[in-house]
């Protein structure tokens, strides 16, 4: 077993191992019998030294990491060179200056054989929603006296999509904040950077999820190629988000009208009418379990070589944009793990940040899935408070 | 005096006024004598009703707001039509879908006469810096065993600028995080949206400030037109940020090499060599006072009609990107207010968020400045925590 150090660790005892972030550490499973909880005995690839190290300072290393240092071989396929061309004309969101020293560390190299042969399911939490920052009254803060939308803070979106009913429907189906758009775009760019092949995209019908999927696809430069399948069966546990009534979501026609890249030919497994307010936990678990099985069945491991598929012949990744609950309810069942009880479930879901993600990889045996590290890193940032210059700077 | 309601307020007493966000309220200063602290008596333009309202639910309304409802007249000048052309080809950072209902509320209309006649000084706090999120050891978290930069979290920049010395110099002069880049770009776009004419840009020599200025200019689509003047006199109180030694800032040549738009002909008022570690508060106050006077003197109210100025003949806004301390130390002296004592100063500076800003407008009498509402709204967003899928989702 090989680990990669995430952080530096300086030994505090003579029998401990010095590690730097990025170090590879070899761990012999047969030698771990006398080791206390949270520690492992390992040998550093860099120094050749051996000693105890804290396991939570490390992650499981990709198999590829142990050999790409010596020789790097790229499997050139049609789909890969296609992505390359796209990337060269890519203007990054963060718009950084051009003459930067680009240090491509070994960790950026994906195990390409795996990427080419195995299917993956990437389940993601949507980005920051406006009511998360501005509270339930966010829409009131943004309406002028004559009922027009007005951007009361720069983190509100510059406008709201047009829809048939009153603006009030967004109260139960809030959009992403600008920060949520930034988060989604950044994740899409990181997936592109890691050359992750996203072949299918599914989204909960909640506007924030469709928007997250759209901005991830834009970051991936796939927004013209892969269309979003809106699946009501992916909506949150209705006891939380729809205790009295299912929100009046934007229809597929309205989403298309608002320039979202929706797969209009997709037939949902769970039509909207099948969602019931305040469903029981058991109903939610069985809906989630059914929908993930239907999705993995509908996205075969070898897609037909047809021109309307973005990446013919490459199984690639199925991206599912849902809610915090989706990470707990979709991935464990796929990996063959039992579902949690409803109290644990609620506690787990609270901890899931914006764009938090879980990744399941199909094993050699078809329809056997295992949870592994997602193809991109975490996204961690701070909060920003509103600033009142008058109270803070002007007044004494 | 006219106020604009920022939030809805529902009366809790018979003598209070119902207000909605966006409402205009007329306040007669002669009628406020019997009003308790924090309240005003006003008349709602929308309802015609009169009553008490909480003052902190409102902001001072632009003079223009009271008449643009009836008739809108745009002063067409060379510089304005120039901006318009730029804007039409503008692809927004947040990349929103095209067919959105664009509701241009009255608050978007600037009092253009003012913009055309008066100078403004906009002092801004830089964006989120990496060490603010990841702590002092941020660089250690990002270095591989062989000393190469590696993006350990997606909020770290994708690469660091090249500079002459070791990467270690960034420990004392940290760059923006990706979130900081997002914040800066958003503010630049909002300034463009409000058609604010930025004629001069000054920055502290700290990398995070130069980067913030660069991304604001990109958001403004001015990065090819207005160059950044790096002024060491704008650096933070050295007692806080340079207690032992002045950081080894990137040189102007290095910044240019890294594609930052630097005004290489600019001669600093305070050369780097004049900064001393751990200066006294009095020295900091007098440095700040000198530098803001030198800047406003160097940017005349009527710039010469020469082709190398972006906006000939339009005084416009002087943008100063500095530190939290800059907002407190530069604007009060410009507005003729006494400086705070050092303890109050420290407390005030702590409250200033990323991209917090203060705006001073020149009065009819030249070199008389008054603090007024900045031309764009605040930016408020939440934090995002790192996510450990293994502990949260996989393990029981």
TrEMBL record, chains A, B:
Keyword Signal applies: no
Alphabetical list of Pfam families matching this protein: His_Phos_1, SH3_9
Gene3D superfamilies attached to this UniProt entry: Phosphoglycerate mutase-like, SH3 Domains
UniProt KW Chaperone keyword: no
A Gene Ontology term for the protein's cellular component: nucleus
A GO biological process held by the record: negative regulation of T cell receptor signaling pathway
Keywords: Cytoplasm, Nucleus, SH3 domain
Subcellular location: Cytoplasm; Nucleus
Main subcellular location of this protein, as a coarse class: cytoplasm
SH3 domain: residues covered: 1-63
Superkingdom, taxonomy of origin: Eukaryota
Annotated PANTHER family: UBIQUITIN-ASSOCIATED AND SH3 DOMAIN-CONTAINING BA-RELATED, UBIQUITIN-ASSOCIATED AND SH3 DOMAIN-CONTAINING PROTEIN A
Protein name: UBS3A protein
Protein source organism: Hippolais icterina (icterine warbler)
């Amino acid at each position: 077993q090989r680990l990669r150090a995430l952080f530096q660790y300086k030994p505090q005892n003579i029998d401990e191992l010095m590690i730097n972030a990025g170090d590879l550490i070899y761990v012999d499973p047969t030698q771990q019998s006398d080791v206390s909880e949270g520690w492992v005995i390992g040998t550093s690839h860099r120094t050749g030294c051996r000693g105890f190290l804290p396991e939570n300072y490390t992650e499981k290393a990709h198999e590829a990491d142990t050999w790409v240092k010596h020789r790097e071989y790229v499997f050139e396929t049609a789909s890969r060179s296609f992505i390359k061309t796209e990337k060269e004309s890519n203007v990054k969101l963060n718009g950084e200056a051009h003459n930067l020293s680009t240090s491509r560390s070994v960790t950026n190299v994906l195990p390409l054989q795996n990427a080419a042969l195995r299917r993956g399911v990437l389940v993601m939490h949507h980005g920051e929603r406006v009511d998360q920052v501005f509270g339930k009254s966010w829409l009131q803060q943004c309406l002028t006296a004559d009922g027009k939308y007005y951007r009361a803070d720069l983190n509100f979106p510059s406008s709201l999509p047009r829809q048939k009913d009153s603006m009030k429907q967004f109260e139960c189906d809030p959009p992403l904040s600008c920060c949520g758009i930034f988060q989604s775009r950044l994740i899409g760019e990181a997936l592109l950077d890691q050359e992750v092949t996203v072949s299918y995209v599914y989204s909960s019908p909640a506007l924030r999820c469709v928007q997250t999927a759209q901005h991830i696809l834009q970051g991936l430069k796939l927004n013209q190629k892969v269309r979003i399948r809106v699946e009501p069966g992916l909506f949150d546990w209705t006891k939380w988000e729809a205790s009295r009534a299912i929100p009046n979501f934007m229809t597929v026609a309205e989403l298309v009208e608002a320039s979202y890249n929706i797969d209009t030919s997709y037939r949902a497994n769970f039509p909207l009418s099948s969602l019931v307010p305040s469903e029981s936990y058991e109903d939610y678990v069985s809906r989630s379990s059914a929908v993930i099985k239907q999705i993995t069945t509908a996205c075969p491991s070898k897609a037909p070589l047809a021109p309307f598929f973005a990446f013919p012949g490459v199984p690639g990744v199925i991206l599912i944009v849902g809610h915090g609950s989706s990470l707990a309810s979709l991935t464990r069942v796929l990996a063959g793990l039992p579902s949690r009880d409803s109290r644990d479930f609620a506690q787990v879901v609270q901890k899931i940040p914006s764009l938090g993600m879980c990744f399941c990889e199909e094993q050699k045996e078809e329809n056997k899935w295992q949870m592994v590290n997602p193809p991109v890193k975490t996204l961690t940032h701070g909060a920003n408070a509103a600033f009142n210059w008058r109270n803070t700077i002007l007044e004494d």
